[in-house]
Amino acid sequence: MHKQNFKIILSFLLILSSSLIFSQKKFTIVLDAGHGGSDHGANRSYADIGRVAEKDVTLAVTLKVGAMLEKNRDFKVIYTRKIDEYPSLSDRTNLANRSKADLFVSIHCNSSQRPTAYGTETYVQGPNQNDENLEVAKRENDVIFLDEKDKQTFGSYNPSSPESLIALKLQQNKYLESSLLLGGLVEGNFVNKDKRFSRGVFQKNLHVLRMNAMPSVLIETGFINHPEESHYLASDKGQTEIAESIYNAIIDYKKAIDRKTGGSVSVKKPEPEKPAESPLKNDFRILLLSSPIKYNDGDPALKGLNYILPLKDNGLYKYYYGVTNMASVKDINLKTAKDAGFRNAYAVGFMPNQKLLTGYYTIEVYTGEKLNGNSFILQTLKDVERNKENGVFYYTYGKVFTLEDAVKLQKDLESKGIKNTIIQKVFK
Ligand SMILES: [Zn+2]
Description:
By secondary structure, the protein is an alpha/beta fold. The chain has helices at residues 3-20, 54-70, 89-98, 130-140, 148-154, 162-192, 207-210, 227-234, 236-261, 327-340, 376-380, 403-415; strands spanning 27-33, 43-46, 50-53, 75-79, 103-110, 120-125, 198-204, 216-223, 283-291, 308-313, 316-324, 346-350, 360-368, 384-389, 392-400, 422-426. It has two domains: 22-261, Aminopeptidase (3-Layer(aba) Sandwich); 283-426, no CATH class.
C-alpha cells in the first residue's frame, strides 16, 4: 500500500478507535528491572547472607510492583524482563516507545566508593538532554495529543512543521513535570512510610530517561555496599516495603494526572465540538530580547529557540520568535519562550503587509572590519551600501517597504549563501 495512504488510514483508525474505546483505555506502564543476565549491576558479598546483586533486588521489587498493579484493572503492565536476562538499554526504551506507554519506571540499586553512603534517590530527565529527547519524541509520535485544546490547535501531526515542533516541546515539558511529580511521590513514601533517608529527586542524563517518549523515572532503591541498607534490600520485608511505596506513588500519580486531564479511564461525555478558531487581524511575534549585540542562529543567548526573526530598529537588535495570526498559537509561542528562559517575553502585533510611511527596510548583510573588494558578499551583490560608525563598518543591501518583502529578500540572500543577515528598519 502507498505509504501516504497507509498513514491517512492509520490516523483515521486512531481517531476512530480513540473515540470508541476512550472509556476503556488502560494506563500502560513499563516496569524496568535494572541490569540482569551477565550484567549483575552493583554487588557485594556479606558473611551472613552471601552475595547481594543489584539485578536480583531490582527484579524482585519490580515483580512485586507489577503484581500489585495488575490487580487494578485500570493498569496494563509491561515488563522489560521477568527473568534473569539482559535486554539492552535500547531494547528497553524501544519496547516502551512501541507500546506507547504512559509511564516508564526503572528500578535500580546504588553503590558508592564511600562505604557510608546510604539512602534513596530518583532521577528524571536531565536538563541538557532536551535536543536528543526531542528527536526521539519526533520519531515516536505519529500522532500527538496533548489535550483537547492543543489537538484543535495543531490538528494533524507533521514533524517538520513549526507548530508540531512547538507542540512537541510543550509535550516534553509536560513529561518532565510529570516525571518530577512521580519522583517526589516515590521519595515521599520512602521517607514518610518506610522511615528511610531520601537523598532527593535529581535530573541526570541517562539513556532510559533520554530515549523515552513518555514521563520516565529511575529509582535508586538503596546502596548495595552499605551493610545495613544492603540487608534491607535483600530481605523480603525490605523489597515489599519498597514495592508498596512505588506502587502507592504510581496510584497517586495517576490520580493527579486524571484530575488534570479530566480522567482517561472513567467514562467521559464527549465535549461538544467547539467552533473553529478564527484568525486575528494582526500577526503576532514574541519579542524575546532587545540587545545592542548581534546573535547568529544557534547562539546560546537564543536558548535553543529556532524560527527567530532579528530586526534592527534604532540601533538595537530585537529578536522575535514565531509568527502566527491564531490567538491560541500565540499563547503557546509565548509560553514556549518563557519556558525557554525569556521571562520578560511578550507578544507584539504586526499589521500584515503594512507599508512603512517614513523610511524603509534594508538588509544588514555584514558588520565588522572593512570588506575586501574580493569578498564573497561584494562579489555576489551589486549595490551594497557601506556606512562607518565608531570604527565599525555596516554593509546593507536593498530597499523594501513591508516586513514581508524584507523577509523575502532575506531568504533570497540566504539562498545565495549570505547567511545571518538582519532586517533593519531605517527612518528617513
Ligand atoms: Zn543500576
